[in-house]
Amino acid sequence: LLCLSKKIFIDLNPLIIFSNGPTINSIVDFNITHHIGVVTPTSFKMYWSDSGKFEVLPLNRNDIFVSNFLSLIEKHTLTKFVNKCLQASINEADEMCDDDMLVEQFLDENRLTLKLKTILNYSLMNDWFSSPSSPKNLTKKYFF
């Protein structure tokens, strides 16, 4: 990996700042952008001990289908899950899950494998597992 480029940046604990928020607005207002480097990540990679490689995490529907590291069944399951969440978000997520249901139970109920749960955790919903919110509220936040 190092032989491909003269510079490499691996952030082991990334802080993702969303582009439309109070932090970004303050940075722009105070002209701090002239003193810091702002880099847009092209992909998110995760080390998988099974294969011993860094794999690109799929961040959108196209990435899911292009991914070589997901099986056809996993691609179908993940796409079905995202579509279900999108549809539930449009319908206000009324019948999708109970308010008392934990996120882990919600993912298990949708028959997601450990690999898919890990992908969802690190690519989309990093605070699902650290937040006591119900899946219904988080579904509205991430998939609407």
TrEMBL record:
It comes from the Eukaryota. GO terms for molecular function: GDP-dissociation inhibitor activity; transferase activity. Gene3D superfamilies: Guanine Nucleotide Dissociation Inhibitor, domain 1, Guanine Nucleotide Dissociation Inhibitor, domain 2. GO terms for cellular component: cytosol; nucleus; Rab-protein geranylgeranyltransferase complex. GO terms for biological process: small GTPase-mediated signal transduction; vesicle-mediated transport. Keywords: Transferase. Belongs to the Rab GDI family. This is Rab proteins geranylgeranyltransferase component A 2 (Trinotate prediction). The lineage of its organism: Eukaryota, Metazoa, Cnidaria, Myxozoa, Myxosporea.
